[in-house]
């Protein structure tokens, strides 16, 4: 890539439509996806979603030929999402941020959530990543974030030893 001549084909596009989370797939297509298509077609690779549960709209998202990552939130059905995504997309999982919001970190719910995601992804051959976001508080205990990362890394290492 020539750093002095970067084009849209050299960059990722990202789009989301949280306001369409509860509308029908047809309405989502009519008011968002057909316009998103125009942007995605200009770019090299694309990523769709943020905090909206997209497990019921994976088939629609497959219209994007350069789509590589789909955001799946803690409020989505990860089993359905992984099954529909297969090995064709990266399941970009957004874990529940409430687990770092307590004064004393409890690894148990984090372990359960991460294991559930890894089981769904392993069963369907779906690559995944974890992105902790939308953190509004750590109850003034910033070590919750470190403990969360350590917990997630430990669980990942159990599933995929180095």
Low-confidence stretches: none
Mean pLDDT: 94
Global morphology = globular
Please tell me how large the radius of gyration is. 17 Å
Strand content: 5-15%
CATH hierarchy, class: Alpha Beta
Q: In the CATH classification, which architecture applies?
A: Alpha-Beta Barrel
Number of strands: 5
Report how far apart the termini are. Answer: 32 Å
Structural class: alpha/beta
What is the total domain count? 1
What is the tally of helical segments?
5
- Write the H/E string, N to C: EHEHEHEHEH
* Helicity, as a percent range: 40-55%
Topology-level CATH name: TIM Barrel
Largest sheet, strands/sense/barrel: 5 strands, parallel
Order of strands across the main sheet: 1-2-3-4-5
Keywords summarizing the entry:
five-stranded parallel β-sheet; alpha/beta; TIM Barrel; single chain; 162 residues
Secondary structure elements and their pairing?
Layout: E1 12-15, H1 25-42, E2 45-48, H2 58-61, E3 67-73, H3 78-85, E4 90-94, H4 107-124, E5 128-130, H5 143-159
Parallel strand pairs: 1-2, 2-3, 3-4, 4-5
């Amino acid at each position: 890539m020539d750093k002095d001549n970067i084009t849209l084909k050299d960059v990722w596009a990202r789009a989301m439509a949280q306001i369409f989370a509860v509308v029908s797939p047809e309405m989502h297509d009519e008011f968002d996806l057909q316009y998103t298509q125009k942007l995605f077609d200009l770019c090299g690779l694309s990523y769709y979603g943020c905090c909206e549960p997209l497990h019921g709209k994976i088939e629609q998202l497959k219209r994007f030929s350069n789509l590589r990552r789909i955001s799946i939130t803690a409020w989505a059905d990860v089993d359905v999402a992984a099954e529909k995504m297969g090995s064709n997309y990266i399941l970009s999982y957004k874990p529940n941020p409430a687990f770092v919001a307590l004064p004393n970190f409890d690894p148990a719910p984090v372990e359960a959530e991460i294991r559930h995601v890894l089981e769904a992804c392993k069963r369907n051959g779906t690559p995944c990543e974890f992105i902790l976001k939308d953190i509004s508080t750590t109850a003034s205990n910033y070590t919750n974030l470190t403990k969360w990362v350590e917990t997630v890394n430990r669980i990942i290492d159990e599933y995929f030893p180095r």
